[in-house]
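To the team - nicotinamide-adenine-dinucleotide complex, inputs and output below.
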Amino acid sequence: MKIVVTGGAGFIGGNFVHYILKKYNDYKIICVDALTYAGNMETLASVKDNSNFNFYKIDIADREAVYEMFEKENPDIIVNFAAESHVDRSIENPEIFLKTNVIGTQVLLDACRKYGIKRYHQVSTDEVYGDLPLDRPDLFFTEETPLHTSSPYSASKASADLLVGAYYRTFNVPSTISRCSNNYGPYHFPEKLIPLMIANVLNDKELPVYGSGENVRDWLYVEDHCSAIDLIIHNGKVGEVYNIGGHNERTNLEVVKTIIHELGKSEELIKYVGDRKGHDMRYAIDPTKIHSELGWLPTTTFDEGIKKTIKWYLDNKSWWENIISGEYASYYEKMYGSR
Ligand code: NAD
Ligand code: DAU
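Output:
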């Protein structure tokens, strides 16, 4: 089996590359990544010489380059992780989100039409469903929840999902879509809540909590996301959407305080800062479908996962210190300097 993993130098794509190469010793992974600010070859350092691994530095919106790669590799499966993924950046500059997340998806789908494919899998997000109110803990996102987006990021991801559905219905491109809740774990870029807070606590820096810190996210350890996608690409039904989440809801403040306590520091590091524009209140996934149809269950609770994640950041300081000492420093100043 030959799998093209787009966005494989990023957080979840990188974890997926490691997961598949470890699990299937006869599968070939073709990693396609433009190496934007979020892509990092260090994440792939331990597999770069593996004979089952190959890398192409390609922008998925570059039709010619994508077609050339398809002609050379003749892949069986595409798993599309490549995206601009950070909500805050989409509020600053929406355009690149449309180019990569929408046009990039369309180019990949066109390549699948032209060259044929066994399966195209779109890695989507629970953010396409919008948000849930804090005072209705009985409500969850199901696959039937209407798309109702809040940020340019989530709007671009929802647009991509609609294109995937349209290419399935109109052109029979055999596709599946997964919509997962917030991931955390190794190789998570430090602009996102959990790695940002770990790095700041370790550096005794202020911990910028948006608004009141009461917003709720449904956290999933990244390896559990990888196992769900593995099941979907092998056993999922084409044309279907699968929600992925493990009922690990926490307020942002709870997450931040857990990290502070695990690292033995003081809650005085917390600084309440201006809220995110259009900030979604609560995400919560109902994973009944993927459990009952494919037998998927997560294996890592939040309490275990956050300990493993903190340990990984302690053991792999050079990975994230290289990031935060580079162009990230000016990003941080721009986003948080006068917030
Ligand atoms: P990330 O930002 O860490 O990684 C994205 C990767 O895509 C990077 O390696 C980057 O270089 C690459 N990339 C960006 N633009 C590209 C382009 N035009 N062509 C080729 N490569 C390009 O993102 P992530 O957090 O790993 O998210 C991966 C996917 O999972 C995204 O599609 C995201 O929407 C989705 N998702 C993320 C989460 C989460 O919690 N992080 C949850 C659900 C779904
Ligand atoms: O739900 C899935 C989504 O999860 C993915 O589709 C996105 O790609 C991914 O980035 C993530 O989006 P969020 O916006 O939920 O994640 P983020 O880590 O940016 O923020 C999590 C929460 O923490 C959110 O309520 C905003 C808050 N936050 C974030 C940062 C970076 C803070 O309070 N302070 C911060 O400095």
